[in-house]
């Protein structure tokens, strides 16, 4: 019996050692000095592998065991590293193009449960009233504790028009809530724009996708044409923007910054992870695109500007806010951002699979690390319609195994706090709904007449114009 276990374990040891050697993990870990393979740890792995193969209640394939081992290695590092099987890799590629099927929620994993990072605007989850920080404990009749994040995402995806029941734990709710959601094709409109009033424009970026840069350029050109070049102020709204593609965030920053201005730089262990991205076409264009920022009106670089952020502004949106803040190009207004200051590289492995691996931290032009800290607004303005959500909002620092901030002391300015003109309305007690026990709060529409933070931004822009006139 023991010899059979040892034989099976040695096969497992050979498999995992072969994987390590073929991927040259030793060389990747330290290119200057190759480290020997961890023989004792691999021996322990082989013993566990052998025990599972010989004694587990049901037969388990080698492929499943190796896949689960890889998944465990990555998820044990930080909340953003992950193994992407063929389906997950395909979904990642589709998601950056701005159209995919599902419920419309950005999710992560915490304590074996699916945690909502942010509902995507105009999605089924958004309209149903799901909130950042919600913990999904059950999908239909299946407990989430028994699933990997990939498995849970697969169950939430499905044929448009089909329904799924989500059971959710919410910090401020006395009992679990249920949401009956109808799956839909999620078409994320990356850039939305309008004139709030003559001379004052509003542009919202909901997510940084492949075409965000050119969509932003189109919106800016149209807005300036409508005002015949007499734009007095611009509000860039990055609230609840979970991020996206790095080059698109560089493009958005470059639209408002002088040529060659530093937008962001990254620091990692390997030379490939060290980059300096500036406001030049080579750093934001892809696939031989034409420079869509080339013909923007000159006034785009100088028009008074406010950037709105909140706890749902993460990653790429924090890069833009940090760059415009450090270059003193815009006033940052709102509440402290999420604090995701790490870079994930998608590394294909073959068979249409990949790993998403955290390879670097990013820094603002002034050298600030945003990781687990976020962007502190110049002017802190809480919206009475969302102040309760901000209290319970999850941030990077709340995630288990989050990457630490590399700077022991972070010098951040203290923002000026503006209290809401009207008190926040108290939370209503849960009422029975046709779809379940969850209340359906009125969702704030960013850019609407009820948008308190937007109106504060417009008031500030008018004040700046008055001062400039004097």
TrEMBL record:
The keyword Signal does not apply. Residues 431-440 have a biased composition (Basic and acidic residues). Keywords: Hydrolase, Protease, Serine protease. PANTHER family: CARBOXY-TERMINAL PROCESSING PROTEASE CTPA (PTHR32060:SF30), TAIL-SPECIFIC PROTEASE (PTHR32060). It comes from the Bacteria. Coiled coil: none annotated. Pfam families: CtpB_N-like (PF22694), PDZ_2 (PF13180), Peptidase_S41 (PF03572). InterPro entries: ClpP/crotonase-like_dom_sf (IPR029045), CtpA/B_N (IPR055210), PDZ (IPR001478), PDZ_sf (IPR036034), Peptidase_S41A (IPR004447), Tail-specific_protease (IPR005151). The gene is ctpA. This is Carboxy-terminal-processing protease. Transmembrane segments: none annotated. One of its GO terms (molecular function) is serine-type endopeptidase activity. Its EC number is 3.4.21.102. GO terms for biological process: proteolysis. Belongs to the peptidase S41A family. Residues 421-440 are annotated as: Disordered. Residues 89-171 form the PDZ domain.
């Amino acid at each position: 019996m023991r010899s059979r276990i040892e034989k099976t374990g040695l096969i497992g040891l050979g498999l995992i050692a072969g994987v390590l050697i073929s991927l040259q993990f030793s060389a990747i870990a330290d290119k200057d000095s190759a480290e020997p393979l961890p023989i004792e740890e691999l021996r322990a792995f082989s013993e566990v592998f052998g025990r599972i193969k010989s004694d587990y209640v049901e037969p388990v394939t080698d492929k499943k065991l190796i896949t689960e081992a890889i998944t465990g290695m990555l998820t044990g590092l930080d909340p953003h590293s992950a193994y992407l099987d063929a389906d997950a890799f395909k979904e990642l590629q589709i998601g950056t193009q701005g159209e995919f099927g599902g419920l419309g929620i950005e999710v992560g994993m915490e304590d074996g449960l699916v945690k909502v990072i942010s509902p995507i605007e105009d999605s089924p989850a958004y309209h149903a009233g799901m909130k950042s920080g919600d913990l999904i404990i059950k999908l239909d009749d299946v407990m989430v504790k028994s699933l990997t994040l990939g498995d849970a995402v697969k169950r939430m995806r499905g044929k448009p028009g089909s329904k799924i029941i989500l059971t959710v734990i919410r910090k401020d709710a006395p009992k679990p809530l249920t949401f009956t959601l109808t799956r839909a094709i999620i078409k994320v409109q990356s850039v939305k724009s309008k004139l709030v009033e003559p001379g004052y424009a509003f542009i919202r970026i909901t997510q940084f996708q492949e075409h965000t840069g050119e969509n932003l350029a189109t919106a800016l050109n149209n807005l300036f044409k409508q005002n015949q070049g007499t734009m007095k102020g611009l509000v860039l709204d990055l609230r609840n923007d979970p991020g996206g593609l790095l080059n698109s965030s560089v493009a958005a920053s470059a639209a408002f910054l002088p040529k060659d201005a530093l937008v962001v730089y990254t620091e990692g262990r390997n030379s490939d992870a060290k980059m300096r991205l500036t406001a030049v076409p080579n750093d934001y264009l892809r696939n031989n695109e034409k420079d869509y920022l080339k013909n923007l009106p000159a006034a785009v670089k100088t028009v008074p500007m406010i950037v709105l952020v909140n706890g749902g502004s993460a990653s790429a949106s924090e890069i833009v806010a940090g760059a415009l803040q450090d270059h003193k190009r815009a006033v940052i207004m709102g509440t402290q951002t999420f604090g995701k200051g790490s870079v994930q590289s998608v590394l294909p492995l073959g068979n249409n699979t990949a790993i998403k691996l955290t390879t670097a931290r990013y820094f603002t032009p002034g050298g600030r690390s945003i990781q687990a800290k976020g962007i502190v607004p110049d002017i802190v303005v809480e919206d009475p319609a969302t102040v309760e959500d901000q209290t319970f909002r999850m941030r990077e620092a709340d995630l288990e195994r989050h990457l630490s901030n590399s700077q022991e002391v972070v010098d951040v300015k203290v923002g000026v706090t503006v209290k809401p003109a009207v008190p926040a309305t108290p939370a209503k007690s849960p009422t029975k709904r046709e779809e379940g026990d969850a209340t359906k709060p009125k969702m704030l529409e960013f850019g609407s007449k009820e948008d308190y933070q937007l109106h504060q931004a417009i008031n500030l822009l008018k004040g700046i114009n008055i001062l400039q006139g004097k």
